[in-house]
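Hi F.,

I've been meaning to write this up properly since the lab meeting, where we talked about keeping a consistent format for the predictions we share between groups. The idea is simple: the sequence comes first, exactly as it goes in, then the structure tokens exactly as they come out, then a line or two of notes. No screenshots and no reformatting. I'm using this chain as the first example so we have something concrete to point to.
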Amino acid sequence: MSEAAIQRFIDSLSRRDVDALQAGYHAQASLSDPLHPDLRGPQVGCLWRWRLHRCEGWDVRALTWAGDERKAQLRWQVDWRLRERGGRGRTTIDTTFTFWDDLIVRQVDEY
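Output, unedited:
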């Protein structure tokens, strides 16, 4: 399993470090979630930059993961607080990663 890639992903999110987060993605990466079904390449980093900018409180926890060097499933949770309105929330995300050269080449989030 590409445990190192998952750990980098969680650590980068926890630190709110968009540059480190983006460095964990392959240049040809794609990301799909219910609100953004087909982001590619630099759009992936833009999405994370936007999300992290909108939130002040951002507590990320990896709950479970399993997989191998090519594919992995991660269940993670984030507690957040919106900067503009102060609303709080908790989101649990089930992510399927596909890796290439120990980088995320495909990410599919369900929440």
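Notes:
The first strand starts at residue 25 and ends at 32.
Residues 3 and 69 are 8 Å apart (CA to CA).

If this format works for you, I'll send the rest the same way.

G.
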